[in-house]
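Subject: Re: docking follow-up (fe (ii) ion)

Dear J.,

Thanks for your patience while I sorted out the input files. As discussed at Tuesday's group meeting, I've set up the holo structure prediction with fe (ii) ion included as the bound ligand rather than trying to dock it afterwards. The sequence and the ligand SMILES I used are pasted below, so you can double-check that they match what you have on your end before we go further.
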Amino acid sequence: MAARDRSVGLTLEALEEPDLMVQVSPLMSPLVWDLAHIGNYEELWLLRAAAGQEAMRPEIDDLYDAFEHPRAERPKLPLLTPAESRAYIDTVRAKVLDSLEKVPLTGPLAAGGFVYGMVIQHEHQHDETMLATHQLRKDGPTLLDPSPEDAPAGAPALAGHEVLVEAGPFVMGTSDDPWAYDNERGAHTVDLPAFFIDVTPVSNAAYLAFMDDGGYDDPRWWHPDGWEWRTRTGKRSPAFWRRENGQWLRRRFGRVEPVPFDEPVQHVCWYEADAYARWAGKRLPTEAEWEKAASWDPDTRRKRRLPWGDSGEHANLGQRMMRPAPVGSYADGASAYGVRQLLGDVWEWTSSDFHGYPGFRAFPYKEYSEVFFGTDYKVLRGGSWATHPLACRTTFRNWDYPIRRQIFAGFRCARDAA
Ligand SMILES: [Fe+2]
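The structure tokens for the complex came back this morning:
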């Protein structure tokens, strides 16, 4: 129900009906598509698959199947209107609540409540996608912005600091987290050489130093495909930034404001992150390095579900602040190695392509992750300020094309210890 309040807050309560039908970018769906798709996914998995009920409206299944229709063509579909979408998702939810006590939490799909966790995480993941859609809108503010006083204090002196993660094995992935997706399974031992990793994500101030040093003009720092992207697109700053009267400004949910130097940089693509790291004499961490720094406790030789332990929340998650917290925030959220802000704030690009772990088995459907395996996508870790805590843990994996900038992504650097 909390997820549903969030979805409604980002759609029906945020915009007028015609604006919900509009596509603001070919990268995104009209918001009304996300809304009805959330309900259709819930119907598919909780009413039909788990509770064995008949399809409510089989004629709309095709419209809301993400694999039948790429985002670019969704506005041309005969979508349900916002009012029809609301009625549909409300009916699905009422039936789900009616069926709850009749569905045994056994069998591959429902054991441990997995299918319910999958549907809740799916809704929260779409809510983050909706926030990215709002960020791409060109007109004025539509979402409330909490006051800056809510931001925790940062520790800017930590920017650029690194810690050593000693050589040795750790456990990557999970076999027992009940809500983990197929791509996080199973737990397996990975032996890594020693490496250094930054204590905080790269800040806007540090990224500006790269820009001021001509980073966007020097092919030495860029992956060949990144240099091709850079020259073809003419990009010279993170997305949503512009320079006015000698000052860097950014547009954030329809508000224009000075770029805050102490926040982690966001809205940079993988190629920009990779170029910055090379300029800084470092590199992006592999996803195994990221997960070891985030989850491994070298003293107890045990894996933590969250950087700071197995429960609690010491991170900027769940759309509370509508932006990243200053670098060095959340000392209580540090990992066993003393690395901060691994969860929340910004998704972090890693150097790794997206592949299945040893023994990977698609579950419950191969379109969740298996169809994306290969060299086209780079893995992101850690979630952003827009990611809900229920869809975030040290094993969680996200992926996107290396040119994508609309997601709430930044990065931190690493380097070999040798
Ligand atoms: Fe979806």
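A couple of observations from a first look. The CA atoms of residues 205 and 307 lie 26 Å apart. Residues 37, 41, 66, 122, 126 surround fe (ii) ion (CB under 6 Å).

Let me know if you'd like me to rerun anything.

Best regards,
T.
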